[in-house]
Each structure stands twice: as structure tokens, then as C-alpha cells.
């Protein structure tokens, strides 16, 4: 008896050969015939036609069609709130009297006041980012093996343990390892959420949903600041800094609850050779019951994955070395890394210490908190709308010109380092927090979107992991150095911003030379543009159809 699978494979191969003879616009990889339930040519063409229809959708239409995709992304985005909350809570906890009693040292020249020594301020910040680097690089393997849904679900339980270690810390070293352990799931959450969005939503929603990741961290920052401010005056640890940290339990608990009902990535299911699971995920994401439409969308995914596997077949299974194995993949990897490291070059390590830095300048805390909370809320609003702005203006435009504006803000902050009046202090507080918004607009939202689009489908999880890991390694190094620059022994104060303004000039140049415009491009089209060595500044105006012939 002839095996049905063999018959289907033979039929598919015949169709592929016929298509090649007819000189169609599509390149049909032979390995696609070896896939479980391989698609027909007609289905592949129908699938790409549906992707073309997605391009034509307005933002409102995309939300109307893809609201289920938004709901399925919600638990992944929710998991990222914890990172922002931790950042906001950490910045205000360092100023809490009860925390300074437990972990501070007498301030030089004023033994009645306590402060956090630069060494420990640096180590706590650095160990969080070190943990995020470990989490990010491990997530590349975890997502490839277990998928983003299961990865985030298990990681949420690790986050609960990390929060507990911080809440019950009795010395600086215990708190240090609590921060390291908390950083690991934070790094995993970012990569896992980015991976799910890049592989599970239509292209019109990629940028808006990707921008919700920095939006969620901004919301978390506001929650952390507000919760910390409510507990600021308490002298009992469990009513002040410990209670502030304990509120982080909420986010991993809600994440697990949401992921129980969420879909997993259909691309992950295809790579695992499970087309039936992929169909189920597509039905859940698109809310469609038409089997032919589901099969068409599945066929487009299968074709893209198979084409990339053919391009790398001599490398075997996707490995870390492939990220730099040839000029094309190396360029895509390094561009993704550069887009992320731009956050550090733009002064992230300095701006994140804003509350503590300003409190050391004897500016009234109510003024500092009011400005910080207000502009953190503005940053959240900016992040929310940036996704639609970069969908309208383009990723490249926002990245390049946004960083020019951010550089100007950093120069203004540095200039105030020579002023000493009270009004100058208020202006400094305003500009430092405004810089968080300009950086969020120029770098954060474009970085999340571009990271989801620059990498190939085959290497996406590993590229996302390496880019996020690189960010956190650089952030770790800068978090260690920066407190020594703005306070003892450097004592540069606000002039520290001038260093980052100079570094951000290189970010602008990098953006012009290497950051492409990927708006309204499918994964297959982006592959073609890179493989044909199209310059980044020419991506938007290049006709990919002509290159595919």
C-alpha cells in the first residue's frame, strides 16, 4: 500500500516543478515538500495575498480585525510591567529613610544623614541588568525549544521567588542577589514578549503592539514611583520599602493567569512540525473558522520558514554561530544589537538615577516626585502613541531624527551643570525627566519594533536574545560607572549628560547608515532586501517584487 504522505509529497514536488517551469514570481523551496502536511502552491499564493491585504488595512481596521491578537498579547505585555515597577521602586526606595537606616552609611560631612555608597548603588543597578542579560541570552534557547507561552509562564514563578528574596533581605549582599535573580525573568519577559508579537500578529499591529512593551515598563515605573511615594514617610520597613517591593507579586501572578488562556506562536508550532497546533493558534489569533483561510495563512508561514531553512541548510539546526556566520546575518544581528545599545549611549544609566541624583542636590523631594511622576506618565503616553507614529512616519525616520532631538536635550541638561540657582535645579529636574520621554520616543519603541523585524524568522529568537543581552551587558557596565561620575569621586553632576550627548551623536550616525525602513514589509521581503545587499536608506523605495523574479 502506498503511504499517503509519500503521495502528497510527490504531488507537491510536481507542483513545485510546474511552478518553476511557468516562471512564477515565487521561489518554492524543495524542502517544503518534506514538511508535515505541505501546502499547495495555490495556498501559498493565497496566504501572501492575505498578507498584502493586511498591508492595506488602516490602523482602525487592523484593530477591528486583530483585537484577538491584542488580547493574546496582553499577558506577555503585562509581564513587562514588573521591569518598570522595579526601576521606579528602586529609584525611590534608595531615598526612603527606613531603607537608609537599614542599608545606608553616614554621609561624609554630615553624620546625621545617611546615603547609599556609590559602590552599592552601582552594584544593585548592575546586578539587575546582569540578571537581565543572563535571562535574555537564555531566552533565545528557551523560546526555540518551549515557545514563548510556556517560557513566560514558568519564568513568572521564578519572579515570585526573586521578589521574596528582596522583600526579606537583611543585608546588602542578600538584596544584591535578590536583584540578580529578579533580573533574569525580566530579561526573559522582554525577549519572550517581543518574539510572540513578531510571530503572531499582522504587520499593521507589529509596531503598535511592540511599542506597548516600553509603554508597559513606563506604566510600571509610574506604579513603582507612586507606591514608593505613598510609603515614603513610614519608618517601619514592612510599611515602607519592603511593602513597596512586595507589590511586585501582582504582576507575575496576573501573567500566569492570563497565559493560561493565551495562544502560542504559530511560527513556533511550524518549526516544531505541528501544523495542526499552528492551525489552532491561527484560529485563536484571527478568530476565523474558515479552514481555507487558516490553511492559507499557515502556508505563508511554512513557505517563509522553509525558504530560510534552505538558505541555511548547510549550517544544520539554527545555532548561535549563525548570527555572525555570513555578511548578511552578521549585518542583521549587529544592526539589532546597535539599535538596542543606543539606549545606553543615550544616558539610560544616568537618567534612571534621576530621583536619587536630584535628591542629593537638596531639591525639595515633593518637587522632584511631582515632576518625575508627571513626566513618567507623559513617557507612558508617548510610548503608547509612538507605535502609531512610527507606523505613519516610519521606523528609520523616528530613530534618526528622534535621536537628534534627544541629543539636544542632553546638551541642555549638561549645560545646567554650571548653574546653581533654585530655578536651575527645577529646570534640571524637568529636563532629566523629559529626556526619558525623548529617549523613549527615539529609541525604545523603534528598538522593540525593529528587533522584531530585522532578524530572519529562523534566527529571530536568538537575535532578540543577543540584542537584549548586549543592551544589558552595556547597561551593567554603565550602571557601575555612572554613580562614580556624577557623585564622588567624579563629581560632574549634571555635566555627566554631556558625555552621553557625545555618545548619542554616534547613535545618529549609526541610524543613518544601518537602520532600514521595514514598515509594511513582510519577513520574506525583508529577507530579500538584505540578501540583495540593499543599503538601509534605500529599503523604503526598493521594489522587492522585481528582486523576487
From TrEMBL:
Residue ranges of the TM segments: 119-143, 155-174, 180-197, 209-229, 249-270, 337-359, 365-386, 398-418, 424-444, 465-486, 492-515
Question: Membrane topology per the record?
Answer: Multi-pass membrane protein
Tell me which Gene3D superfamilies the record gives: MFS general substrate transporter like domains (1.20.1250.20)
Gene Ontology MF annotations: carbohydrate:proton symporter activity
Q: InterPro entries in the record, alphabetically?
A: MFS_dom, MFS_sugar_transport-like, MFS_Sugar_Transporters, MFS_trans_sf, Sugar_transporter_CS
> Which top-rank group of organisms is this from?
Eukaryota
Annotated GO CC locations: membrane
Q: Where in the cell is it found?
A: Membrane
Alphabetic keyword roster: Membrane, Transmembrane, Transmembrane helix
What residue stretch is flagged as signal peptide? Answer: none
Q: Which residues form the Major facilitator superfamily (MFS) profile domain?
A: 72-519
Q: What protein family is recorded? A: Belongs to the major facilitator superfamily. Sugar transporter (TC 2.A.1.1) family.
Query: Under what name is this protein listed?
Result: Major facilitator superfamily (MFS) profile domain-containing protein
Amino acid at each position: 500500500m502506498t503511504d499517503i504522505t509519500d503521495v502528497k509529497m510527490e504531488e507537491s514536488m510536481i507542483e513545485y516543478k510546474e511552478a518553476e517551469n511557468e516562471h512564477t514570481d515565487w521561489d518554492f523551496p524543495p524542502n517544503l515538500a518534506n514538511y508535515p502536511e505541505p501546502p499547495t502552491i495555490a495556498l501559498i499564493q493565497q496566504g501572501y495575498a492575505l498578507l498584502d491585504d493586511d498591508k492595506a488595512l488602516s490602523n482602525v481596521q487592523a484593530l477591528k480585525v486583530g483585537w484577538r491578537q491584542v488580547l493574546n498579547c496582553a499577558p506577555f505585555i503585562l509581564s513587562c510591567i514588573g521591569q518598570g515597577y522595579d526601576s521606579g521602586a528602586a529609584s525611590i526606595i534608595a531615598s526612603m529613610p527606613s531603607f537608609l537606616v537599614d542599608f545606608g552609611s553616614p554621609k561624609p560631612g554630615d553624620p546625621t544623614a545617611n546615603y547609599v555608597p556609590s559602590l552599592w548603588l552601582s552594584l544593585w543597578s548592575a546586578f539587575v541588568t546582569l540578571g537581565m542579560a543572563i535571562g535574555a541570552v537564555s531566552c533565545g534557547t528557551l523560546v526555540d525549544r518551549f515557545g514563548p507561552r510556556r517560557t513566560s509562564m514558568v519564568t513568572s514563578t521564578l519572579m515570585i521567588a526573586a521578589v521574596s528574596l528582596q522583600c526579606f533581605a537583611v543585608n546588602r549582599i542578600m538584596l544584591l542577589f535578590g536583584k540578580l535573580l529578579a533580573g533574569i525573568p525580566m530579561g526573559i519577559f522582554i525577549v519572550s514578549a517581543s518574539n510572540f508579537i513578531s510571530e503572531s500578529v499582522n504587520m499593521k499591529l507589529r509596531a503598535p503592539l511592540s511599542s506597548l512593551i516600553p509603554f508597559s515598563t513606563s506604566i510600571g515605573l509610574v506604579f513603582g514611583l507612586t507606591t514608593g511615594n505613598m510609603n515614603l514617610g513610614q519608618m517601619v520597613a514592612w510599611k515602607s520599602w519592603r511593602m513597596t517591593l512586595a507589590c511586585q507579586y501582582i504582576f507575575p501572578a496576573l501573567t500566569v493567569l492570563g497565559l493560561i488562556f493565551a495562544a502560542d506562536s504559530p511560527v513556533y508550532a511550524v518549526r516544531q512540525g505541528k501544523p495542526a497546533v499552528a492551525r489552532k493558534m491561527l484560529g485563536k489569533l484571527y478568530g476565523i473558522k474558515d479552514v481555507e483561510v487558516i490553511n492559507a495563512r499557515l502556508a505563508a508561514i511554512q513557505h517563509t520558514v522553509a525558504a530560510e531553512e534552505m538558505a541555511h541548510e548547510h549550517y544544520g539546526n539554527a545555532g548561535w554561530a549563525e548570527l555572525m556566520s555570513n555578511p548578511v546575518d552578521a549585518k542583521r544581528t549587529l544592526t539589532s544589537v546597535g539599535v538596542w545599545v543606543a539606549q545606553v549611549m543615550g544616558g539610560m544609566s544616568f537618567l534612571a538615577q534621576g530621583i536619587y541624583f536630584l535628591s542629593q542636590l537638596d531639591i525639595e523631594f515633593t518637587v522632584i516626585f511631582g515632576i518625575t511622576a508627571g513626566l513618567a506618565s507623559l513617557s507612558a503616553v508617548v510610548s503608547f502613541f509612538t507605535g502609531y507614529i512610527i507606523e505613519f512616519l516610519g521606523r528609520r525616520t523616528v530613530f534618526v531624527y528622534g535621536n537628534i532631538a534627544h541629543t539636544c536635550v542632553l546638551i541642555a541638561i549638561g549645560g545646567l551643570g554650571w548653574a546653581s540657582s533654585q530655578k536651575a535645579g527645577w529646570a534640571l529636574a524637568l529636563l532629566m525627566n523629559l529626556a526619558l520621554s525623548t529617549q523613549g520616543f527615539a529609541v525604545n519603541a523603534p528598538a522593540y519594533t525593529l528587533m522584531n523585524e530585522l532578524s530572519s524568522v529562523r534566527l529571530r529568537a536568538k537575535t532578540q536574545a543577543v540584542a537584549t543581552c548586549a543592551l544589558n551587558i552595556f547597561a551593567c557596565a554603565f550602571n557601575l560607572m555612572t554613580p562614580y561620575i556624577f557623585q564622588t569621586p567624579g563629581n560632574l553632576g549634571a555635566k555627566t549628560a554631556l558625555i552621553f550627548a557625545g555618545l548619542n551623536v554616534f547613535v545618529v550616525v549609526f541610524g543613518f547608515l544601518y537602520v532600514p525602513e521595514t514598515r509594511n514589509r513582510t519577513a520574506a521581503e525583508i529577507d530579500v532586501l538584505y540578501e540583495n545587499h540593499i543599503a538601509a536608506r534605500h529599503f523604503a523605495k526598493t521594489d522587492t517584487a522585481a528582486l523576487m523574479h
